[in-house]
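Our preliminary data section would be incomplete without showing what the modeling component actually yields. Below, a chain of 159 amino acids is followed by its predicted structure, encoded as tokens that our downstream tools consume directly.
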Amino acid sequence: MANYTLEEKEGFTVIGLGTELKSDYTDYAGIHKEKADFWEAVSQDGRLDTLKRMASNDYVFAVNEAVNNKMMHYAGVMTGEKAPEEARVIQFPKGEYVVVKGEGTSADDLNNKLAGIAFGQVLQEASKVAYVGGPNASVELGQRDGLIYGEMWIPVVRK
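Predicted structure:
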């Protein structure tokens, strides 16, 4: 059984820079490559650093959301500031969240591990709640012992 908790969270806003994922949702290798290429691009061109300077904390969000029947992926931060023109304001609802904790050798490794555990195990085992869509996020919380640690936050409703 996968290790997870159910936590009540206040609603919050993430400002994110996004990309449309064009791979089929079952093409995990294709999705992984698209996400990795996107993160490399926003890290290299300085857009991620610009977002981080606006942030109200040190958390970096990797957000997944369906928008207008498109699978979108965002690099984002929590902030109360006005979003840059190319960014999207992503609203996370107040309510219960499945929270999966983990660590990885890189942000990419962490995101993939958390998503695999959350969607591959936890949501199938969590019999009292259901994910009904909306944004979900892998959240980098910090570093320790040479690893990046974080959590996956998935909004859920009671069955």
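The beta strands are 5-9, 12-21, 60-67, 70-78, 88-92, 95-104, 129-130, 136-144, 147-155, 157-158. The mean pLDDT is 93. Preliminary results of this kind motivate Aim 1 of the renewal.
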